[in-house]
Amino acid sequence: MIKVGIVGGTGYTGVELLRLLAQHPEVSVEAITSRSEAGKNVTAMYPNLRGYYDRLAFTAPDAKQLGDMDAVFFATPHGVAHALAGELLECGTRVIDLSADFRLRDVAEWEAWYGQTHGAPALLEEAVYGLPEVNREAIKRARLIAVPGCYPTAVQLGFLPLLKAGMIDPGQLIADCKTGVTGAGRGAKVGSLLAEASESLKAYAAGGHRHLPEIRQGLVAAHNGEINLTFIPHLTPMIRGIHATLYGQLIAEPEADLQTLFEHCYADEPFVDVMPPGSHPETRSVKGNNTCRLAVHRPEGSNTVVVLSVIDNLVKGASGQAVQNLNLMFGRDETLGLAAPALMP
Ligand SMILES: NC(=O)C1=CN([C@@H]2O[C@H](COP(=O)(O)OP(=O)(O)OC[C@H]3O[C@@H](n4cnc5c(N)ncnc54)[C@H](OP(=O)(O)O)[C@@H]3O)[C@@H](O)[C@H]2O)C=CC1
Ligand SMILES: CC(=O)N[C@@H](CCC(=O)OP(=O)(O)O)C(=O)O
User: For strand 292-297 and strand 272-274, is the pairing parallel, antiparallel, or unpaired?
Assistant: First the structure.
């Protein structure tokens, strides 16, 4: 059994880790932290987990206890993993961080977007960006994983086949993205109230969102050169889900067609589903599931290519992808614990 701990167990990504790991045949969750709920039984807070974690209780974060684990997930706000990751790695514990602490290679860029001093620049060199469709071999050898953000997962998986094949103009990329309210976390915020978020739709951070440099970093690597991306996120009245509508301008004709290009690119990927021509993937088709569903369109045969990409922000956008990384790091079948189909409706 792989012994794991979760720091930040009361948040949405923490409880989603618990739900997924309950179905994992080779993982035992032995530590789960919360400062505010320390002492409380996990099932007292999350009755859906009764029968799975009946003896597990929240404790305050303790480096010694966490250092006894084979792996520790950080499902915490930005900056928390910086403070503890180094100590855990010294104990031989592998670290899988769901926050953005180790996602950006450039310290100054991270500090500018996250508004705080980077707490562990010395660890950046060895941190691996945990997008298996791009970095599978490096993930297998990694001790420290930066799990990609939710929007960055949906946007990169949609654009990568086109950029890698040199099919679209890297200077004219547009990502028009929608998310559900769990993306904002479980903490109380006016914007997440039912009366504020339901029956309404709004863009936010149009002037610049912190996921822009993360997406750019991945797309620059895929293209092997500069790119220009306009990324506009929107808040929608859904609980879970990300829908990305991606626009590119074709500069070359694919050898076969765009559909074949996508199908070949993701033929061996267990968690990317290229849907049949003419499809319009919906967020509910991935609810609770680790799949990214994609469809590629060329409206009226023009030079504009439109990719539709959907994920569950809490699964492929966070906790599911984190479990996929754990499986790879420990030499297990990548799909363990992640096989259940989506909930529909
Ligand atoms: N929600 C989403 O869709 C996604 C979230 N993420 C990222 O995952 C991380 C967690 O997100 P989410 O679950 O939504 O967050 P929540 O706000 O829902 O939960 C945060 C958790 O962290 C704990 N925590 C807060 N501060 C500290 C601290 N200083 N030290 C230790 N524990 C702390 C909290 O418990 P307590 O305060 O009791 O200790 C709580 O359990 C964030 O970095 C987020 O950006 C990534 C992808 C998608
Ligand atoms: C609705 C909402 O606020 N969504 C969050 C994105 C989700 C998230 O938590 O971002 P990470 O994947 O980087 O952790 C936001 O826009 O900041």
Answer: parallel
